Amino acid sequence: xxxxxLPTLLLLLxxxxxxxxxxxxxxxxxxxTPSSYTLPTYLYTSxxxxxxxxxxxxxxxxxxxxxxxxxxxxxxxxxAGADCIASAVDRDTFPNEIECSTGRENLxxxxxxxxxxxxxxxxxxxxxxxxxxxxxxxMSTTPVTIPELHCESGDDEGVxxxxxxxxDIAPQNVRRVCAGPTC
Length: 183
What we know:
- Residues 1-18 form the signal peptide.
- By secondary structure, the protein is mainly beta.
- It has a single domain (33-176), classed as AOC barrel-like (Beta Barrel).
- The chain is 11% helix and 38% strand.
- The protein has helices spanning 2-17, 29-32, and strands at 36-46, 59-67, 74-75, 82-87, 97-99, 107-111, 124-133, 136-145, 150-153, 159-162, 167-169, 175-176.
- The strands form 2 sheets. Strands 1, 2, 4, 9, 10 and 11 form a 6-stranded antiparallel sheet that branches. Strands 3, 5, 6, 7, 8 and 12 form a 6-stranded antiparallel sheet that branches.
- A hairpin with a 5-residue loop joins β9 and β10 (159-162).
- The longest helix is centred in the N-terminal third of the chain and has 16 residues, at 2-17.
């Protein structure tokens, strides 16, 4: 009986290797990969002017939208838009991570530095985005640098900075989240 095991195993192995349609997981990736991220709104405000040494009441408010080539197999709350809002009493107490309205499991922001000392907001951060596709969890970690901001100093000695147009971002570091060797 044992003499049949080796030839059978070799036959199965040769058929698997010679199979005309081998399983190629990289073919499945494009349908699960976001095509773009958009920040339609980015607003930063504070109640201190450019010349102030102490930045007071910083507030960051941005909206994030993810887009996929085919959303039929995607489970992602951020496709409808996610609001990411953070505030503090001063620059030193501003949070380093911001959880967005769709929940930490879906989207949060990790700041790459402190708020700009002249009060022009937060220009560098990382968007950590997770979604479901074909029953599996995927994620991306995308560094974001906000392009030129339009800032105005208000009558109340505050500052308001915003982008002049929506910011389009190419998703980066896209990967399937895996907890075992079967992934």
